[in-house]
Input
Amino acid sequence: MKFKPLIIGNWKLNLFREEAFNLIEFIVKNTPASFKGDIAVAPVMVLLQSIAEKVHGSRIQVSAQNIFHMQNGAYTGESSVRHIKELGVSMAIVGHSERKQYFGETLKHVCLKIKACLLEQVVPVVCIGEKKIESAEIVLNKQLDYILTTISDAQFHNIIIAYEPIWAIGKKVKIDISRTEKIFKLLRKKIGNNTRLLYGGSVTPKNAKDLAQILNINGFLVGSASLSPSMFIEIIKAYL
Ligand code: PGA
Output
Protein backbone atom coordinates (compact mmCIF):
# COMPACT_ATOMS: atom_id res chain seq x y z
CA MET A 1 0.00 0.00 0.00
CA LYS A 2 1.24 3.49 -0.81
CA PHE A 3 0.81 5.75 2.21
CA LYS A 4 0.58 9.51 2.33
CA PRO A 5 3.40 10.81 4.51
CA LEU A 6 2.48 11.99 7.99
CA ILE A 7 4.53 14.51 9.98
CA ILE A 8 3.65 14.92 13.66
CA GLY A 9 5.14 17.65 15.85
CA ASN A 10 5.32 16.45 19.44
CA TRP A 11 5.55 19.67 21.45
CA LYS A 12 5.97 17.78 24.76
CA LEU A 13 5.82 20.04 27.86
CA ASN A 14 6.73 23.15 25.89
CA LEU A 15 5.10 26.31 24.56
CA PHE A 16 2.81 28.45 26.65
CA ARG A 17 -0.48 29.59 25.17
CA GLU A 18 0.72 32.56 23.09
CA GLU A 19 3.80 30.70 21.88
CA ALA A 20 1.70 27.72 20.85
CA PHE A 21 -0.77 30.00 19.03
CA ASN A 22 2.05 31.73 17.16
CA LEU A 23 3.55 28.42 16.10
CA ILE A 24 0.29 26.90 14.88
CA GLU A 25 -0.60 30.04 12.95
CA PHE A 26 2.79 29.87 11.25
CA ILE A 27 2.34 26.21 10.37
CA VAL A 28 -1.17 26.72 8.98
CA LYS A 29 0.05 29.63 6.83
CA ASN A 30 3.34 28.16 5.67
CA THR A 31 2.66 24.50 4.91
CA PRO A 32 3.38 24.22 1.20
CA ALA A 33 0.28 23.47 -0.86
CA SER A 34 2.36 21.00 -2.85
CA PHE A 35 2.80 18.77 0.24
CA LYS A 36 0.28 16.00 -0.26
CA GLY A 37 0.60 14.30 3.11
CA ASP A 38 -0.89 14.74 6.56
CA ILE A 39 0.34 16.98 9.37
CA ALA A 40 -0.48 16.89 13.06
CA VAL A 41 0.68 18.71 16.18
CA ALA A 42 0.57 17.39 19.73
CA PRO A 43 0.31 20.23 22.25
CA VAL A 44 -0.08 19.91 26.00
CA MET A 45 -3.45 18.55 27.09
CA VAL A 46 -4.85 21.91 28.27
CA LEU A 47 -4.21 23.52 24.88
CA LEU A 48 -5.80 20.76 22.79
CA GLN A 49 -9.12 22.55 22.46
CA SER A 50 -7.77 25.94 21.47
CA ILE A 51 -5.27 24.46 19.02
CA ALA A 52 -8.07 22.32 17.52
CA GLU A 53 -10.09 25.51 17.06
CA LYS A 54 -7.11 27.26 15.43
CA VAL A 55 -6.60 24.49 12.87
CA HIS A 56 -10.30 24.07 12.13
CA GLY A 57 -10.85 24.15 8.36
CA SER A 58 -7.13 23.62 7.66
CA ARG A 59 -5.37 20.37 6.82
CA ILE A 60 -3.59 20.21 10.20
CA GLN A 61 -4.79 17.61 12.69
CA VAL A 62 -4.37 17.61 16.44
CA SER A 63 -2.97 14.76 18.50
CA ALA A 64 -2.87 14.23 22.24
CA GLN A 65 0.50 13.32 23.78
CA ASN A 66 -1.12 10.76 26.05
CA ILE A 67 -4.53 9.54 27.20
CA PHE A 68 -5.89 7.33 29.97
CA HIS A 69 -7.48 4.05 28.96
CA MET A 70 -10.63 4.24 31.12
CA GLN A 71 -13.51 6.33 29.81
CA ASN A 72 -14.51 7.76 33.20
CA GLY A 73 -14.44 6.98 36.91
CA ALA A 74 -12.40 7.73 40.00
CA TYR A 75 -9.04 8.39 38.28
CA THR A 76 -7.96 11.78 39.55
CA GLY A 77 -6.01 13.84 37.07
CA GLU A 78 -6.59 11.74 33.96
CA SER A 79 -8.32 12.44 30.62
CA SER A 80 -9.93 9.75 28.51
CA VAL A 81 -9.97 9.26 24.76
CA ARG A 82 -13.61 10.35 24.73
CA HIS A 83 -12.63 13.63 26.43
CA ILE A 84 -9.99 14.49 23.86
CA LYS A 85 -12.18 13.37 20.96
CA GLU A 86 -14.85 15.83 22.06
CA LEU A 87 -12.27 18.59 21.62
CA GLY A 88 -11.66 17.72 17.98
CA VAL A 89 -8.57 15.56 18.49
CA SER A 90 -8.08 12.72 16.01
CA MET A 91 -4.87 11.02 17.21
CA ALA A 92 -3.08 10.15 20.42
CA ILE A 93 0.56 9.31 20.98
CA VAL A 94 0.69 6.13 23.02
CA GLY A 95 3.62 4.73 24.97
CA HIS A 96 6.19 7.44 24.25
CA SER A 97 9.47 6.47 25.88
CA GLU A 98 9.23 9.49 28.20
CA ARG A 99 5.94 8.10 29.51
CA LYS A 100 7.73 4.83 30.18
CA GLN A 101 10.77 6.51 31.73
CA TYR A 102 9.07 9.08 33.98
CA PHE A 103 5.57 7.71 34.56
CA GLY A 104 6.13 3.98 34.76
CA GLU A 105 4.13 3.06 31.68
CA THR A 106 4.51 -0.54 30.61
CA LEU A 107 3.54 -2.48 27.51
CA LYS A 108 0.40 -3.54 29.34
CA HIS A 109 -0.67 0.10 29.70
CA VAL A 110 0.22 0.73 26.07
CA CYS A 111 -2.10 -2.08 24.95
CA LEU A 112 -4.98 -0.80 27.09
CA LYS A 113 -4.52 2.66 25.60
CA ILE A 114 -4.45 1.31 22.04
CA LYS A 115 -7.73 -0.51 22.68
CA ALA A 116 -9.30 2.60 24.21
CA CYS A 117 -8.28 4.68 21.16
CA LEU A 118 -9.61 2.14 18.69
CA LEU A 119 -12.95 2.00 20.50
CA GLU A 120 -13.37 5.75 19.99
CA GLN A 121 -11.89 5.81 16.47
CA VAL A 122 -9.00 7.96 17.59
CA VAL A 123 -5.79 6.87 15.84
CA PRO A 124 -3.14 5.63 18.28
CA VAL A 125 0.43 6.54 17.34
CA VAL A 126 2.18 3.71 19.10
CA CYS A 127 5.82 4.30 20.02
CA ILE A 128 8.36 1.49 20.07
CA GLY A 129 12.13 1.59 20.39
CA GLU A 130 15.21 0.21 22.06
CA LYS A 131 17.76 1.59 24.50
CA LYS A 132 21.37 2.06 23.42
CA ILE A 133 22.61 -1.14 25.05
CA GLU A 134 19.77 -3.28 23.73
CA SER A 135 19.47 -5.17 20.46
CA ALA A 136 16.94 -3.33 18.29
CA GLU A 137 15.84 -6.55 16.59
CA ILE A 138 15.11 -8.38 19.86
CA VAL A 139 13.40 -5.45 21.61
CA LEU A 140 11.26 -4.40 18.66
CA ASN A 141 10.14 -7.97 18.07
CA LYS A 142 9.19 -8.36 21.70
CA GLN A 143 7.35 -5.03 21.84
CA LEU A 144 5.48 -5.69 18.62
CA ASP A 145 4.58 -9.27 19.54
CA TYR A 146 2.98 -7.96 22.70
CA ILE A 147 1.24 -5.01 21.08
CA LEU A 148 -0.01 -6.91 18.07
CA THR A 149 -1.97 -9.36 20.18
CA THR A 150 -4.35 -6.51 21.05
CA ILE A 151 -5.06 -5.54 17.45
CA SER A 152 -7.25 -7.46 15.05
CA ASP A 153 -6.23 -7.74 11.40
CA ALA A 154 -9.01 -5.34 10.43
CA GLN A 155 -7.60 -2.68 12.76
CA PHE A 156 -4.09 -2.52 11.35
CA HIS A 157 -4.87 0.37 9.05
CA ASN A 158 -6.27 2.31 12.04
CA ILE A 159 -3.02 2.46 13.96
CA ILE A 160 0.34 4.09 13.35
CA ILE A 161 3.63 2.72 14.61
CA ALA A 162 6.43 5.18 15.42
CA TYR A 163 9.88 3.66 15.74
CA GLU A 164 11.93 5.89 18.01
CA PRO A 165 15.31 4.56 19.15
CA ILE A 166 15.38 5.84 22.73
CA TRP A 167 19.04 6.87 22.47
CA ALA A 168 18.18 9.20 19.59
CA ILE A 169 15.32 11.05 21.31
CA GLY A 170 16.17 14.64 22.18
CA LYS A 171 19.88 13.96 21.71
CA LYS A 172 20.53 15.40 18.25
CA VAL A 173 22.54 12.30 17.30
CA LYS A 174 23.74 11.51 13.81
CA ILE A 175 21.37 8.97 12.30
CA ASP A 176 22.81 5.98 10.50
CA ILE A 177 20.62 5.89 7.40
CA SER A 178 21.50 2.37 6.26
CA ARG A 179 20.91 0.92 9.73
CA THR A 180 17.59 2.75 9.92
CA GLU A 181 16.63 1.43 6.50
CA LYS A 182 17.41 -2.12 7.64
CA ILE A 183 15.27 -1.76 10.75
CA PHE A 184 12.33 -0.40 8.82
CA LYS A 185 12.55 -3.31 6.42
CA LEU A 186 12.23 -5.66 9.40
CA LEU A 187 9.37 -3.62 10.85
CA ARG A 188 7.50 -3.64 7.56
CA LYS A 189 7.97 -7.39 7.24
CA LYS A 190 6.62 -7.92 10.74
CA ILE A 191 3.73 -5.48 10.63
CA GLY A 192 2.55 -5.96 7.03
CA ASN A 193 1.47 -3.39 4.51
CA ASN A 194 -1.56 -1.81 6.12
CA THR A 195 0.07 0.30 8.83
CA ARG A 196 1.92 3.59 8.53
CA LEU A 197 5.42 3.51 9.99
CA LEU A 198 6.99 6.71 11.30
CA TYR A 199 10.54 7.44 12.36
CA GLY A 200 11.27 9.60 15.40
CA GLY A 201 14.42 10.67 17.26
CA SER A 202 16.74 13.56 16.29
CA VAL A 203 14.85 14.40 13.08
CA THR A 204 16.06 17.73 11.72
CA PRO A 205 15.84 19.51 8.36
CA LYS A 206 19.36 18.16 7.71
CA ASN A 207 18.56 14.45 7.93
CA ALA A 208 14.86 14.57 6.94
CA LYS A 209 15.53 14.31 3.21
CA ASP A 210 17.62 11.16 3.56
CA LEU A 211 15.12 9.60 5.95
CA ALA A 212 12.21 10.47 3.65
CA GLN A 213 13.92 8.47 0.89
CA ILE A 214 13.68 5.28 2.93
CA LEU A 215 10.92 3.26 1.34
CA ASN A 216 9.33 1.93 4.50
CA ILE A 217 9.29 5.22 6.42
CA ASN A 218 5.96 6.99 5.97
CA GLY A 219 6.71 10.13 7.93
CA PHE A 220 8.16 11.47 11.15
CA LEU A 221 7.41 12.04 14.80
CA VAL A 222 9.38 15.19 15.49
CA GLY A 223 10.23 16.54 18.95
CA SER A 224 12.58 19.48 19.45
CA ALA A 225 12.73 20.54 15.79
CA SER A 226 8.93 20.84 15.77
CA LEU A 227 9.21 23.78 18.18
CA SER A 228 11.01 25.81 15.54
CA PRO A 229 8.53 27.13 12.95
CA SER A 230 11.04 27.18 10.12
CA MET A 231 12.59 23.80 10.95
CA PHE A 232 9.20 22.08 11.12
CA ILE A 233 8.24 23.45 7.70
CA GLU A 234 11.64 22.41 6.30
CA ILE A 235 11.06 18.88 7.58
CA ILE A 236 7.66 18.79 5.87
CA LYS A 237 9.39 19.89 2.67
CA ALA A 238 11.55 16.76 2.76
CA TYR A 239 8.48 15.01 1.30
CA LEU A 240 8.04 17.38 -1.65
P1 PGA B 1 13.36 14.62 19.19
O1 PGA B 1 12.15 13.84 19.93
O2 PGA B 1 12.90 14.92 17.79
O3 PGA B 1 13.59 15.83 20.01
O4 PGA B 1 14.52 13.68 19.20
C1 PGA B 1 11.37 12.91 19.24
C2 PGA B 1 10.26 12.41 20.13
O5 PGA B 1 10.42 12.37 21.34
O6 PGA B 1 9.18 12.03 19.64
